[in-house]
């Protein structure tokens, strides 16, 4: 994912703090590189070999325990016993595809749809968020007759050919195709205080540009908490004007919930729920199976019919009974353990703790977010400019204090704070202490 620094220099955000050949000659690293080759990206100059994980903690081969604030997949907690049990039981009994009726699959889909707007009553199951977004883009094209997509300038929506073209942050070189326009994220920097109006105007300008290019728009596709753009959550409701604008142009709104979905923002089960809008399609993945690879797209039946009239869709592993068992266990745990409420309450505590640090240290330029999804901007003290080098230093400093964390944003200078939803108060406090230590 490329990022321009304040001086305009392009940085690769993962590479900024990734292992590079020569950094270490550890045998396990050599073995990994020999196996995965050029596509391999290992976190940290000194990569960590992990052996187990539980709750919010990961354990390395050397016995070091790390508090995991990096990874939003094991959202209900690493190796949650109820997910482990559900997957183990189902795989020992039956695993097949959606061409047979297996009740656990429909049980799951009904439980999932209980969290969805009524209009999105069909769900197509896939194995990855990329597949879900690929399908959503194709459905949007079939439903509108358009080919134009509006995304935000540092968005990441996945890795298929179609979705990569709509993921500006994935492009290391070259430019977006004519059919994709990237607009600034809904930030104060771009819109001032009128975030809703500013974002709507950006969408309208992109629509005008499509008209000039002779391209019919198909959809605005947005991660409703703008994760890779640097996390923009407030004020709740700001998305609705942009959604009105895209619909007025005959196009659709795709809510990419791969990051904010499943209770993470605390206020609502889905990120779009904070904005009082009903998307035309919702895509989801990562935390859906707590690590079991599963994803999906919720859609209006009429839109899916338009797509299926022209082309078939089958996904061998998508929505199989083991995925359904994992997904159902995740929903049950979120409900039974009050994890959305915990995201709201522990998230508020964490936000306040981080804001205290910001008040005392000018290099912590902004702290924003919702629930357990928080962005922390790091900047140069004198100039206030985004500071990716300080960010790398803080990421490394936190690792040495036993905390795993990554970065996002246009300049790679926003810490992406995204722990499991089962985070305890004392773990939030431990994070804040490690952050202060890493800044010192
Ligand atoms: C917002 C968003 N959408 C889609 C994807 C793609 O999901 P997957 O990696 O499961 O294909 C990602 C992955 O990071 C993502 O962050």
TrEMBL record:
This is 4-aminobutyrate aminotransferase. GO terms for molecular function: pyridoxal phosphate binding; transaminase activity. It comes from the Bacteria. Its cofactor is pyridoxal 5'-phosphate. Keywords: Aminotransferase, Pyridoxal phosphate, Transferase. It holds the Pfam family Aminotran_3. InterPro entries: Aminotrans_3, Aminotrans_3_PPA_site, PyrdxlP-dep_Trfase, PyrdxlP-dep_Trfase_major, PyrdxlP-dep_Trfase_small. Belongs to the class-III pyridoxal-phosphate-dependent aminotransferase family. Gene3D superfamilies: Aspartate Aminotransferase, domain 1 (3.90.1150.10), Type I PLP-dependent aspartate aminotransferase-like (Major domain) (3.40.640.10).
